[in-house]
Design goal:
Length: 488
């Protein structure tokens, strides 16, 4: 028995080999070829993107091409697409030596993820059982981007500590789990979650945290010198923040019903985001003896209002209610970066590079429960009878569902998302522990040189006077000057 244990320990504790010359091309080529085959078998254009659109117009008395859903949805799709590739990508460039990995691997996994998402979501939501085909249009592209967002959030918790091959595995399982939990929450439980507080943020956050917990690195302090930012890396990360902040109203309203629901979702998100900026700045300033702001908080906690507003965005939460959500979430998220993340790392051995616990997991969970409360409190006098039916889709099998019951299912949906994230993440984490994926050693994390050709002029790291770490709150103050002048 002892020999077996020693063999297992020796297998998982083998010397790290970061050479992915065979494994990465193999995964990319094989999986892309698999996508081509599966698309050939299953994916077709829907009636609004097919060349038979002219016949469809005639048969349905449609008088103008402008009524094609493309013209309603494509502006929102553009905004969401920018968030996925630029917003999330540049938000992860804060590390002084991992900007290539932050943007480049974000690009890789999102490009694979959106293909796999079109298939997985298609099988669950739009498979035509008479033809065996999945019909896709512009709304399918938006939903595929949403699906990718869950895996990109998980990547934030793993940033700098995993190989690109591991990230492809994280995405493969993440997209699959997302499609299943989304089907359970939105179809079986009939929850409303336009902006994905539950299905995207709570799931993606806890999925990444669970993987990171299983992949705990006891000697990660050996890479401490690189687990921080420099001036220009924080500026690049702020570009990602601003793109996300500006386009979040589109994210939360992209797939809502045309008309008042979409209009309301954009307004509510807009206000929540604005409120979260002020409270983030206030708490960040209060946390330092001299009132200085921390870019870690400004880059991340300012977005918490948009995350928390995802579920209730299309509800009649009222404009001042949106401000309250943003106000509270800015405080909660900033406190998370100040106190919760260091606590989790020290006592629960949870190494969360980007702090997704504070930006996605907790605000997403809160957003799900906020949606449940607002749904349960809905009244016919506020929504009107037709408004209640349209907002909560009380039709067909759900025509007789009460708002109280709807609130209960909304809360249950939040729990389902968290459970899928934690359990699924733990399983994927154990898969990624096998020493076959080319991940870096504990003393070689957060460094682009492991997987990228880095230009020569960037190879030397200039001295940094202040250690800026996204994981640990800086308690000590740095004096105005570290130099003294001697009189000759």
């Amino acid at each position: 028995m002892g020999n077996c244990c020693d063999a297992v320990c020796g297998f998982f504790g083998r010397q790290k080999n970061t050479n992915v010359r065979v494994s990465l091309p193999a995964v990319c080529f094989v999986w892309q070829i698999a996508m081509i085959i599966l698309f050939g078998v299953f994916i077709r254009y829907d009636e609004e993107s097919d060349a038979h659109w002219a016949e469809h117009k005639r048969d349905h008395n449609i008088t103008s091409d402008i009524e094609n859903d493309f013209y309603f949805r494509y502006p929102s799709f553009q905004d969401v697409h920018v968030m996925i590739f630029i917003g999330f990508g540049f938000l992860m460039t804060f590390l002084k030596r991992y900007s290539f990995g932050g943007v480049g691997f974000n690009f890789l996994i999102a490009s694979f993820g959106l293909q796999w998402a079109l298939l997985m979501q298609g099988w669950f939501h739009s498979l035509d059982h008479t033809t065996g085909k999945i019909y896709i249009g512009v709304e399918s592209l938006i939903n595929a981007d949403f699906c990718c967002a869950g895996s990109l959030i998980a990547y934030g918790a793993l940033l700098g500590k995993v190989s690109p091959v591991q990230l492809m595995v994280v995405t493969l399982f993440g997209i699959t789990l997302f499609a299943v939990e989304e089907y359970i929450i939105l179809t079986l439980l009939h929850c409303r979650d336009a902006g994905g507080s539950m299905v995207i943020h709570a799931f993606g956050g806890y999925y990444g945290l669970a993987i990171s917990w299983v992949l705990y690195r006891p000697n990660l302090h050996l890479s401490k010198r690189l687990n921080g930012s420099v001036y220009h890396s924080d500026v690049f990360a702020m570009i990602g923040t601003l793109y996300l902040w500006m386009f979040w109203p589109s994210f939360n309203s992209a797939i809502t019903d045309h008309g008042d629901g979409q209009h309301r979702a954009a307004i509510n998100t807009y206000l929540a985001l604005a409120a979260s900026v002020l409270t983030t700045v206030a708490i960040s300033s209060m946390s330092q003896k001299r009132g200085k702001l921390d870019m870690v908080h400004i880059q991340n906690a300012t977005l918490a209002g948009g995350v928390a507003m995802g579920t209730a965005a299309e509800f009649m939460i009222t404009p001042y209610g949106s401000l309250i959500v943003g106000f509270c979430c800015g405080i909660i998220s900033t406190f998370g970066y100040l106190f919760v993340t260091p606590f989790l790392e020290k006592y629960l051995k949870l190494q969360d590079t980007c702090g997704v616990h504070n930006l996605h997991a907790v605000p997403g969970m809160l957003g799900g429960f906020i949606g449940a409360i607002v749904a349960a409190a809905a009244t016919e006098s506020v929504y009107s009878k037709e408004g209640l039916i349209n907002t909560f889709d009380f039709e067909g099998d759900f025509a007789n569902r009460s708002v109280g019951t709807q609130g209960g299912y909304q809360a249950a949906g939040t729990c389902v998302a968290i459970a899928f994230g934690l359990v699924g993440g733990a399983i994927v984490g154990f898969i990624l522990k096998f020493p076959i994926w080319g991940d870096p050693a504990d003393d070689n994390c957060y460094d682009d040189e492991v997987y990228w050709e880095v230009p020569e002029e960037e190879e030397s790291i200039p001295p940094v006077l202040e250690y800026n770490n996204h994981m640990i709150h800086k308690h000590q103050e740095i004096s105005e000057s570290n130099f003294s002048v001697e009189q000759s």
